[in-house]
Structure of TetR family transcriptional regulator:
Amino acid sequence: MTSKEQTLQAIKDTAYTLFAQFGIDKTSFAMIAKEIGVSKPALYYYFDSKEALVTAIFDELYVAIEKDLTIDLRSVTTANYVTSLIAFGDKQIDDQLQNPLFNRVFNEYLLLAARDVRYHERLQAIQRIYLHTFQQYVDTGVTLKQMSAENATHKATILAMVLDNISNYILTGYELDYKKIWAVTVQQILCSE
């Protein structure tokens, strides 16, 4: 990694941490520069504005989330279907519990989406990907005869909404047995025939 690349990454990492600590609105270029140990004008070499930095960090989060939600179901069989679906949710829960900064930063972008259509549209795209992922899981379950095709879209939506709401509870710091809730939800959806 070159010195410029290292500085760019330091700027993004520092901004990410400060966004989690103080919020996007209360984090200034001056704060970021001070934390890194560079002048405020030096930041403008990398980003035209704070908004450009906010967008760059969001773009990285978007790509990471999109990658995390991309699944390959070719290895899913009748024997491992249920455990695969539960494991998918468990991984989402673990990732969120292990990265409290992500929770805070993502919450900042949720707030920003209420004021800025660009973020609103991108967050809706994430929701569509999320729903599509669960639709793929349910369709695979139907193909493997693990569930009926009746209400398949609704079942996928329920799974997505439950896991999303688990994420919301994690964001608030409310402690529950999230993995058990997820496993029970999966079992109930599969047994609702």
DSSP finds nine helices and no strands in the chain. The mean pLDDT is 94. The radius of gyration is 20 Å.
